[in-house]
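$ ./design --mode recover --in tokens.txt
reading tokens...
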């Protein structure tokens, strides 16, 4: 009788703890009825090492090839597919799901600022029988309510590429956005040993990628006292706006030595502005993402470099991570898919698509 009473007390305490976590948005994460893992929300939480960070290659080596089934539907809430970068992220997700025989569904939005629309799509996805949610949030916290609810129902949440996430139990798959900005700054510093004036074209101020890349770039410049950031303005990921802003910057500061653009789409606009001033090859231009057109511009000499990400790999890795969790395997809170520099020295290695 005492043993039964003690066990009942322990179960009640565990239930209360889970309820308290959910109420505080420090979400429980679980295996169980929705995921096929441990059977309790605490079980899935124990599978995610929130402080852990492991390169995807190392994780695949240690955990092996994941497997799924026709009953394991995965849903991906992405951003606008008019930005080809997110198209490659989707392609990686869908191709890996197909390869592993897992049902999938992708939800995209109209444009890069559609925060409310993305939240609505995420809510819709949560009601589609998904065993795991994958998402590329426009805002760092914009989908947190959906993530919290999903984790409370034992549905793993995998964040692809952008906002690393604030809800405990989520897993981030992608690069470090601040490191991307720092990498661009360090690259420019090597190309400009004598220093000079530098300008930055920012993405949408509501985007975590824009904020973190900007912070990383400024932190990188701080290490190089001979580089002076004389202008920085948002073009909201828009190519035409970036061209107009870069042109105005060059008019105000004709001795700018380098531009950093927080994505390649805007960098194409900056390249046009530089060309209009007859400064192609004289002003450095470093973009971000590694989209195919940027690599063509590097080959043509119209761009200097891009800090290339690996969206196809990220999308596939998100599928693998979700399936590892559903199989009850432990994963780090950060699955690292690092970015890297592509310039004239190595651009020929990436003739098509995105890695």
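writing sequence...
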């Amino acid at each position: 009788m005492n043993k039964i009473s003690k066990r009942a007390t322990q179960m009640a305490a565990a239930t209360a703890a889970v309820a308290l976590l959910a109420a505080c948005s420090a979400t429980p994460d679980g295996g169980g009825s929705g995921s096929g893992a441990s059977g309790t929300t605490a079980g899935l939480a124990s599978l995610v090492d929130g402080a852990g960070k492991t390169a995807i290659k190392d994780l695949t080596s240690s955990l092996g090839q994941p497997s799924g089934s026709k009953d394991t539907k995965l849903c991906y809430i992405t951003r606008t597919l008019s930005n080809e970068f997110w198209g490659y992220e989707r392609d990686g997700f869908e191709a890996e799901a197909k390869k592993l025989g897992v049902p999938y569904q992708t939800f995209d939005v109209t444009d890069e600022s559609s925060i409310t629309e993305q939240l609505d799509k995420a809510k819709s996805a949560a009601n589609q029988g998904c065993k795991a949610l994958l998402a590329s949030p426009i805002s760092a916290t914009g989908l947190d309510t959906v993530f919290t609810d999903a984790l409370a129902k034992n549905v793993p949440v995998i964040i692809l590429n952008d906002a690393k996430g604030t809800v405990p139990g989520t897993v981030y798959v992608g690069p470090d956005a601040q490191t991307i900005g720092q990498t661009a700054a360090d690259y420019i510093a090597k190309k400009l040993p004598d220093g000079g004036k530098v300008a930055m074209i920012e993405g949408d101020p509501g985007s975590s990628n824009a904020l973190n890349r900007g912070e990383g770039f400024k932190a990188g410049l701080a290490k190089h006292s001979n580089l002076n950031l004389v202008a920085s303005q948002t073009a909201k990921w828009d190519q035409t706006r970036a061209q107009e802003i870069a042109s105005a910057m060059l008019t105000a500061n004709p001795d700018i030595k380098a531009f950093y653009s927080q994505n390649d789409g805007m960098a194409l606009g900056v390249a046009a502005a530089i060309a209009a001033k007859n400064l192609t090859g004289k002003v450095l231009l470093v973009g971000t993402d590694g989209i195919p057109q940027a690599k063509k511009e590097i080959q043509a000499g119209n761009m200097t470099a891009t800090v290339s990400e690996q969206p196809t790999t990220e999308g596939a890795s998100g599928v693998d991570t979700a399936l590892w969790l559903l199989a009850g395997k432990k994963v780090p809170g950060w699955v690292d898919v690092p970015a890297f520099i592509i310039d004239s020295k190595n651009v020929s290695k990436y003739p098509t698509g995105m890695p």
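exit 0
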